[in-house]
Structure formats: C-alpha cells, structure tokens
C-alpha cells in the first residue's frame, strides 16, 4: 500500500518519510526539558522557577551552537545523494571543530556570566542559588549538544531519520530514570531537586552522542562519518560561513522566548513559573514546526540539485498545507483546554491561572509562526541564511520586545494586560517576520528560476 502511495504522490511521500520520524525525534529531544518542568513542578515551585530561569539563560547559547550545525543540511544533502560523497567527512570534521570551540565558550559563559545574570533577575535568594547551581552542573554539556545535533542532521540528510529517533527515545528514557532518582532522592540516591535535573539532562545528552558515534562506526553498514580530517577541524570556515547566520537566527528566535522570561521576572517568581509553563507547552507545539523547517531545507536543497525550481515550489506548498492543518488543530485544542493544560505542569493554582490567560493569546500566533518557520527552512535550503537572521533580529527584537514591554508596563491597557502584553507583542512580531520571509522567498524563486543551485568552490 505504501509503495502504491509513494508512486502516486512521490513528493508527499518523500516529505512524510522524513517528517514523521523527525517530528518524533524533536519531540523526544525537547521533552527532556518538559520532563524536567513537570517533575520539578510537583517537587517545588521555586525549583521550577529556577530551572525556567536557567533554561532561559543557557538556551540562547545552546541554540546558537545548534543553529550553526544547521549549515550542514544544504552542504551535505546533495553530496549524500550522488555528488562527491567523501566531502561529508570534511563537513563533519568542521562540525567537530566548531563543537569543541563553541562548547568551550558555552561552558565558560555558563559558569561566569549566566549565574550573574540569574542573580539580577530572580528576586528570591533560593531561586538565585538553585539557578546558579543548575548552570554549573549543566556547563560541560554544550559541546556534546552541538556534536550530537551534527550527527542528527547528518543522518536526516542521508534519508535515515529513524536513527535519530531511536537515539532520542533512549535519551528520554534515561532522563526520566535519572530525574526520578536524583530529583526526589529515590532508591537511596540523594535528593537534589533542580541540581539532579541538571545532572540527568547532561548525562542523557552525552550518552546520546556516544550512541550516535557507536552506531555510525560499528552498526551502520554504510558509515557516513568515517574519519576525522584534522585540517578541517582546525579550519571550519566553510561550515561556519553558512551556519553562522543560521545560528544567530535560531538563537534570536529562542532568545526571544528567553527575553520574555527575563521580562516576566519583573512580575514575580510565580509569574516566572507561569511563563515557564507556557514556554514548555509552546515548545511541544513548536516541535513539529521545527521538523517541517528541517524537512523543507532538505527537500529544497535536494530539489535544486536535481529537479529545479518547479519541484521546490511544489514541495514547499505541500509542507505549508500540512503546517496549516497542524496549527489549526493546535489552536482548537489550546483554546478549548487553556484552563486545564497548566495543571499538567504545576499543581499551584495561582501559577496555573496566570498561564491559562497567556495560553489564550499564544495560541493565536501559531499561524504566522508556522509560515515563518517553513520559509526559514526553504531559504536555508537555498543556502540563504543571512536573510532569516536579519529578518528575525528586526521583527523579533526590534519590534516584539519593545512593543510587548510598552503594552505590559506603559500602555493605557497595562493594568488589564499585565504580563500578557508581552505575548501580544510577540504575536505582532511573528506576523511581520512571516511577511518578510515570504517576500524574500519569492525573490529567491525569481533569482533561481530555470537554474539549479550553483556548485560553489566549497573546498579550497
């Protein structure tokens, strides 16, 4: 039956073959932080607020590193599908080098500047202490996180999305077990609260990386990353040139939510807990959109190397239709159960009530968020990562944050909107961003009409 479906709808079949495993993979990966939130929410409200604050601080750093590895997708995809396959080792060697460098920088920030920022933002001394301790324990994880994402991108570009899915499943299971033992102190382990969650998350990331390496070298019959080229470990300029704007764009997008957390902290630690619930729930809903963006980048890069611009347009339209159906369902569910969803994350009724009000607003901007996510992936497939970076910086930080702050603190409706004003500003910024990226995508289509993606001199 599937073979008949694939023959009749080849483009849709190709997209779904990649999309479903990638959605599950990203859901499982991001579920690690969700598990932390849910388990800590039933442990202690201050520990929940501390982890929310810590996540808002380290997430932009980690997302920048992960975003840089997104540059692997357009570089590797066409080589894995017939052109100069040996170049994959060069790009992965560069990813290894960048992971070492950026991981060291991330670790240093996590034990120096980020704890200082936590002290300025948290009002409770206990929240400040727990946040700093979480950051110290998580700091060795940045390098593994970047390299693990590189392996995930590699297998997905090779058309093997089930391998990252299996690794993510194992990682989540381990994280739940470690959390159960270390947060609550079960089976004779010390009761560590948020610190236990940090250790559990770090251990699951490192073990996931080791599984990727072992599978590719020992189990995979067609090894993808067979050797390290130390010259390109020391000279990662090709990947860095493509990945740097993608890293900034991704960190801008995630950093926006972190900035909201920082701004929410002005309303107190209970509001901070509510913001963490909204972020965790929004992360769950955003995961399939991230997968759609990654799939879009892969199919666009592959289509431009083999079929041309008409195939690109067809596949992007299919992904947009799938995205519209998905966010419509999310909107209906969130609007209908906004007052019950927060209790999945916390038993505190005040925190849940604040989160419920925010969810009513956040559900409305899922539509422009889907559009901007798909077109970000499409432009990345064209190796145009600078446009997304600039558009996100202007619309999200140039518009969303100032507008949200004004609505929440200074506008005539500030007393009514309160913390919800920040999320209204976010919705406006995402709408502008979607419009900008749509316009840029259309310009790119005109540029490459009747052409295939040029083959640059990527290796000197």
UniProtKB/TrEMBL annotation:
The chain crosses the membrane at residues 12-35, 55-76, 88-114, 134-151, 163-183, 195-217, 238-264, 284-304, 316-338, 350-368, 389-408, 420-441. InterPro entries: MATE_fam, MATE_MdtK, MdtK-like. It comes from the Bacteria. GO terms for molecular function: antiporter activity; xenobiotic transmembrane transporter activity. Pfam families: MatE. It is a multi-pass membrane protein. One of its GO terms (biological process) is monoatomic ion transport. It comes from Marinomonas communis. Its main location: membrane. This is Multidrug-efflux transporter. It is found in: Cell inner membrane. Keywords: Antiport, Cell membrane, Ion transport, Membrane, Transmembrane, Transmembrane helix, Transport. GO terms for cellular component: plasma membrane.
